[in-house]
Amino acid sequence: MKNTLKKGYQFRRILGTGNAFRGTSFRAVYRLNSLGIIRLGFSLSAKSGNSVKRNLMRRRLRSLAEEKGKRTGADVVIMPAGKLSINNWEIVREDFMKLLVTIEEKEKKNSHRKAR
Predict the structure, then answer these.
(1) 3-state secondary structure of 80
(2) What whole-number distance in Å separates Cα of residue 67 and Cα of residue 86?
(3) Nearest 5°: CA angle at 40, between 36 and 46?
(4) What's the rounded Cα separation, in Å, for the pair 91 and 81?
(5) Alpha helix positions (H), 72-115
(6) CB 3.0 to 4.6 Å from 18: which of 29, 43, 63, 113, for a disulfide?
(7) How far apart are CA 31 and CA 54, in angstroms?
(8) CATH number at residue 65
(9) What's the pLDDT tens digit per position in 22-47?
(10) Count of the separate structural domains present in the chain
(11) For the chain, first and last CA: distance in Å?
C-alpha cells in the first residue's frame, strides 16, 4: 500500500483543518492522524515545472518520507513555492526535515494533552 493521499475529500479535510508549514522551497499543510504513518499528497501544477521535474520531486519526497518519517503519524499536502528546480534538492531536503521536526513536536504536545 502506498502511503499517498489521492481523493479530493482528503485534500479538502487537510487544507481546511490542518496546520501550515512554510519552508523556502515548498509550503505544506499537515494534520495528525492515528495511523502512525506519514501519508503525502502533492498539489503541483504545470506552472511549477514540467512533468519530469514534478515527478522527480514526488519521488524524492516520498523516499525521504519512507526513510525519515517512519514514526510520524500525519497527513501532509505539499505545494511548491514557485518553480521547481532540480538544483535545490538540498534546500528541499532541509525543509522536509524541518517539517518532520515540527510535526513530531505537535505530536508530543498532543500526547501530553491526552495524558492529563
Answers:
(1) strand
(2) 20
(3) 175
(4) 12
(5) 89-115
(6) 29
(7) 23
(8) 3.30.230.10
(9) 988 889 999 999 888 899 999 988 88
(10) 1
(11) 35
- Among candidates 65, 26, 24, which has minimal Cα distance to 49? 26
Amino acid at 98: K
Q: Is residue 3 part of a domain?
A: no
Grid coordinates given for 89? 534538492
> What cell was used for 102?
515540527
Residue that wins the pLDDT comparison between 87 and 49 = 49
Q: What does the alpha-carbon distance between residue 112 and residue 116 come to, in Å, rounded to a whole number?
A: 7
Residues 6+ apart with CB under 8 A from 43: 11, 77, 78, 79
Rounded to two decimals, what is the model's pTM? Answer: 0.86
Where in the sequence is the domain holding 55, given as residue range(s)?
Answer: 8-115
Element counts in the chain: helices (H) and strands (E)? 3, 4
For the record, the C-alpha cell of 109 comes out as 504536545
Flag whether 77 is in a domain. yes
